[in-house]
Amino acid sequence: APSDALEAALVLSTKAHARVLSVDAAEALAMEGVEAYFGADDVPGSNCIGPVVKDEECFASEFVHCVGQVIGIIVAETATIARTAANKVKVEYEDLEPILDIKDAIAANSYMADVHRIEHGDVDAEEAALRAGGAAAGAVVTGEVNVGGQEHFYLETNATLVMPQEDGGLEMFTSTQNCAKAQNFAAHVCGVDANKVVARIKRMGGAFGGKETRSVFVSCAVAVAATHTQRPVRIMLDRDVDMQTTGQRHAFHARYTAGAAADGTLKFFKVDVYNNAGCSLDLSAAVMDRALFHLDNAYQWPAVRAAGYLCRTNMPSHTAFRGFGGPQGMMICEAAMEHLAAALGLEATAVRERNFYRGEEAVTHYGMRVPVPTWHVPRMHGELLTRCDYDARRAAVAEYNAAHRYRKRGISWVPTKFGINFTAKFMNQGGALVHVYTDGTVLVSHGGTEMGQGLHTKMAAVAAQTFGIPVHMVHVAETATDKVANASPTAASMSTDLYGMAVLDACEQILEQLRPVREKMASNEFSWSALVQRAYFERVNLSAQGFYTVPGDRCGYDWNLNVGADNARRGQPFNYFTQGVACSEVEVDCLTGDFRVVRSDILMDLGKSINPAIDIGQIEGGFVQGLGWLTTEEAIWGDKSHPWVRPGQLFSRGPGFYKIPAANDVPRDLRVHLLSDAPNPFAVHSSKAVGEPPYFTAASAFFAIKEACRAARQDKAGADAGAGGAHFELHAPATS
Q1: What is the pLDDT of residues 121-176, one digit of tens each?
Q2: Which of 383, 692, 707, 729 is catalytic?
Q3: Sheet with 233-236, edge to edge strand ranges
Q4: Is 692 a catalytic residue?
Q5: Cα–Cα distances in Å, from 397 out to 122, 486, 594, 599?
Q6: Residues in Cβ contact with 641 at an 8 Å cutoff, skipping those fewer than 6 apart
Q7: Are 435 and 163 in contact (CB under 8 A)?
Q8: Cα–Cα distance measured from residue 571 to residue 367, given in angstroms and rounded to the nearest whole number
């Protein structure tokens, strides 16, 4: 940061729901080293912000709607002084009744936005036929699923440096996945045009979706302070502040009725799905949409009736997180599958295998055909189970359980099918700017941000391969809004697809501009550097702006279109599916609940990988992060379930109370494989997206834990309720 930079600290609400009666910063301002305090009355432009609808405030004016809502900002000579002063700002409240969890919201009818619904097939007829046929026809089950939230716990907390420029402009260095949003909302709150604000990011220390939109309220507050003081202002949130204020993965609750024939063939699925959106809309509607799209996982349900409700609660606005609702939807599906299997006396794995999408007629509940040439889950299932010697290990698990009373093992496998696209059609676009210099080196700028996922490395590889030069001759610059404007956020696992194609487009334009020069050169005098230099002297443009959009018939879904039973008329939400199958074996201590993952095998279809080393790392990381979500990472909020925590406060706001996976939680034996001979015709260089799709493979460990618990329960009961054992609920995370 510049030597004259001020440090900032946020003044935050301590109430979950209240009217703000007064704010007194006098004691804070009297401290030595404190420069200023700014609140709602000091916003030069509009105080209203929000990524989809402007239902939030940069600084709370009359009401606060969650603990951690920003009321104001203190700027001072040091970060320590700023934090101390922020705690001295006195806020007087009038308490209002808060709503703190999903069930309270349901009881209070506290919802936001429209309820999106999907109707596929004749649910009522399928259910009536099963009920009329009795036990001989099959089973109908009713149940509930709870899936917890998850803290992003990125290595680097939210950080922003804003430097005033001439003519009222701003230059922002901000830890964000979404430079365009940071730029536009800083301009919005500061009352300047967007063309006077430049947002930049070289790299982030992780994000996982948490910096797609929830970084913006921090950068906006700092932008207001920098505008007033006309000095650079910097902030970096403490871990506990970041965890309390920036939102988490959405907790989900579902109520379902499902039916299957006696042989395990699925018949119908009725489900109402609820997520805890928090106090503002943010991306909760899109998260719910993806959850509804993934309620099938990899299975053909002949009839589905699903509805998604966004619960308005007095919690920080929950937001994007790796998977974006997809994993929650698949967990709901798998819970219903397990319930049906138990009711039918079948193994859950047998029910899964029987109901894979297969054949030319396979179509999802939202009307998208499952393309046979690129649908590999049945093949992958057989290949993985052979690789991991599933049948022999399952027999060995049974032997182990028979010999051990207080330690039980379980083994299970699950498939995953993750749709690739932004569900909002307009976001499926990407730009890039490529320069070739006279020494033959190449500079690439693109709209994606680097957060450790290897995006810049892949973009360099695309440019190098297109030009036929070594990758060390390609440099990828920082992401900046004055280089590539109006970029979509680096999210939805779409960045390699969008920006890879945009880089490819720019490079191909340059090659076309070079073609006449190349044709005039003799083969013995040709080299890349010689070609570039000759083109320069012939006044050929050595720069190009690339642009790519996903074809219009392969993205977009109109929820408002009344289509009757023909959901395909609403559109095709996904360009393609990234698929996988995973098998895990676990061991559970039945006295303490402690567990360890003995072995996990993962097979992913990533098409023709641009960089297998990066992709395998993404698979391993996604699995372990998903394992944390489903097993150890319990977010404890002040609600009716935790009356000893102040209402609306996050108790587990640090590594001492919130347990992300550690080295001992990684599977003792982790084997990752990429499917061969499976090119993808719909993405750059036949590759497939990798960031989010592997995340759900961790469910194999969760259901293996459930199998171990089932073995322990059967020991205690001394009875066998069929091959699958009696049904019991195990909610996620499996911390109790």
Answers
A1: 999 999 999 999 999 999 999 999 999 999 999 999 999 999 999 989 999 999 99
A2: 692
A3: 34-38, 70-76, 6-12, 233-236, 159-164, 170-174, 197-201, 479-480
A4: yes
A5: 41, 54, 18, 12
A6: 101
A7: no
A8: 8
